[in-house]
Design goal:
By secondary structure, the protein is mostly helical. It contains four helices and no strands.
């Protein structure tokens, strides 16, 4: 068994001969390499985004399907409740504003 461990497992190939003339494909690769150098630091982020983006939409759709949507009657009832609350709150703010305005005019501007 010890002899089997000493055998090389991967053969090394001969080195490639350098090319003499540049082909148009090399110049295209060079222009792409500038873009590649710019994107290289972002590669891990892009890999994560490619994984997360589809999952986000799948999970969002799953959540939308789980929602119990109100029927028409409940929708109108809740809409009316919002309008009533907003009106009451508006009158309350109006009253507080008028009281503070009167106090300000009597104390500061007198």
């Amino acid at each position: 068994m010890a002899k089997a461990d000493k055998k090389p497992r991967i053969r090394q190939s001969a080195p490639l001969a350098p090319t003499k003339a540049k082909s148009p494909a090399v110049s295209n690769r060079r222009s792409r390499s500038v873009f590649g150098r710019w994107l290289r630091p972002l590669a891990p982020l892009l890999k994560v985004l490619r994984w997360l983006a589809p999952r986000y939409f799948v999970n969002a759709w799953r959540e939308v399907r789980q929602v119990t949507w109100p029927n028409r009657r409940e929708t109108w009832r809740l809409t009316l409740a919002v309008f009533v609350f907003a009106t009451i709150f508006g009158f309350a703010i109006f009253g507080v504003d008028k009281v503070l305005e009167r106090i300000f005019k009597e104390t500061v501007l007198k």
